[in-house]
Design brief:
Layout lengths: L3 E2 L9 E5 L2 E8 L2 E6 L13 E3 L2 E3 L6 E3 L16 E7 L2 E5 L1
The chain binds FE2/S2 (inorganic) cluster (FES).
């Protein structure tokens, strides 16, 4: 069962979903979709409320940037990476693989 519809995922507008007890930030970049843990590794902020530019998402609280593809923390104050999840796209159906 799909978690999201590709048509509703707007580029640069991350969406927060809950799945299997996890809170995940799903972001569309072009025709690709990426999923990372929604909670910033620096403190308790929701990354889905942050700004996206290219393959980066910026935490709104203190400005740390993460790579949507790898979860790597690119700029301080965050240092720990975020977990990433696989995405399966089938037509319009987007499923986060946990
Ligand atoms: S909570 Fe995200 S950078 Fe501080």
């Amino acid at each position: 069962m799909a978690d999201l519809s590709l048509a509703t995922l707007v580029e640069g507008k991350p969406v927060k979903i809950e799945k299997d007890g996890k809170t995940i930030c799903v972001t569309r970049v072009g025709e690709e979709v990426f999923a990372i843990d929604d909670t910033c590794s620096h403190s308790d902020a929701s990354l889905s409320e942050g700004d996206v530019s290219g393959f980066k998402i910026e935490c709104w609280l203190h400005g740390a940037e993460f790579d949507l593809r790898t979860g790597e923390a690119l700029t301080p104050p965050a240092v720990a990476p975020l977990k990433t999840y696989g995405i399966h796209v089938d037509g319009d159906s987007v499923t986060v693989e946990i």
